[in-house]
Amino acid sequence: MPEGHSVHRIARQFDRNIVGRRVAASSPQGRFVQGASMIDGRTATSVKAVAKQMFLEFDDDLWLRVHLGMYGAWDFAGEIVVDPTIASANGRMGQTNQRGTVVDDAVMDAAGENSLDSIGAPRRTRTRVRMSEQTSGLDDEGQPWPPPVVGQVRLRLLTEITCADLRGPTACVIQTPDEVAATIAKLGPDPLVDDLAEGEERVVSVIRRKPTPIGLLLMDQSVISGIGNVYRAELLFRARLNPHTPGRDVPEETVRDIWRDWVKLLAIGVETGQMMTMDGLDAAARRRAMARRADRHWVYHRAGLPCRVCGTEIVMEEAAGRKLYWCPSCQA
């Protein structure tokens, strides 16, 4: 499932490539025909991400709300202007092959997590293609335009030069401004949206009165926004906190440290496109981590492997239907 950094990256790409443009909307799959017809021909006027949801505004106060869920993704094609605020700190975002490559000194992993191929900055993208003035036929490189529909596309948003295809979302709905406000009101604070100090107080207040295990609370989007399975495991390890500890038993300062750590890690994720959760790496180790997920995390996806700190075997267990990774020694 895309975590908070991915959705913020997607929103920023929409801001660069869709906002301010008239959009032709359709539902090739046929499951969003009415919704697509409501925004077809309108101009996208703004976009924002909150938690794991993106809200794209159109004129006449219509909003498209998209929650990618477990399997959703945006695929872009055409001319794509990369938002420089989400380019890698050591280079620009770009495409990668399946073996991983280096582009302008930016290290891309084999899954394309730091590229326009990734789910966080939409995938399978043909970038910097200069389109002809026509809206159909071939582009300047002789490729079909608009691009052919491939697979089950819930929603296609098409400008004169850019195409965005949405596949497999959990939610894809049209909302009024009041409905958008109501949706956002149900979400916990997002470090990239809310005041940091106010967000910290909200998180502390909620967690410190809950009997629910902290490992479940961090995944509850009404408590804190954007944290998914990877960040949950890594934040708990970095706090050396047992995931089964009831929220009300977690020391207040520890809750504050987790919030502040999330502020830090989310910013890194948006900047690099990768869920980098290890600190104190030298230059060579950091490049390895940026290129290979297995070198990027403390405990996530390391079941049965020795803890990087104490050597104890990392445990994986089911928690509310999701895999939870933790060290029974460091997080005792």
From TrEMBL:
Protein's GO biological process: base-excision repair
Domain FPG-type: 298-332
Native species: Microbacterium lemovicicum
Keyword 4Fe-4S annotated: no
Pfam family, one: H2TH
Gene from which the chain derives: nei1_2
Cofactor(s) required, per the database record: Zn(2+)
Domain Formamidopyrimidine-DNA glycosylase catalytic: 2-100
PANTHER family xref list: ENDONUCLEASE 8
Molecular function via GO: class I DNA-(apurinic or apyrimidinic site) endonuclease activity; damaged DNA binding; oxidized pyrimidine nucleobase lesion DNA N-glycosylase activity; zinc ion binding
Family to which the UniProt record says this protein belongs: Belongs to the FPG family.
Keywords: DNA damage, DNA repair, DNA-binding, Endonuclease, Glycosidase, Hydrolase, Lyase, Metal-binding, Multifunctional enzyme, Nuclease, Zinc, Zinc-finger
PROSITE patterns linked to this entry: FPG_CAT, ZF_FPG_2
Gene3D superfamilies in UniProt: 1.10.8.50, MutM-like, N-terminal
Name this polypeptide is given: DNA-(apurinic or apyrimidinic site) lyase
EC number(s) given by UniProt: 4.2.99.18
Domain of life the protein comes from: Bacteria
SUPFAM superfamilies according to UniProt: Glucocorticoid receptor-like (DNA-binding domain), N-terminal domain of MutM-like DNA repair proteins, S13-like H2TH domain
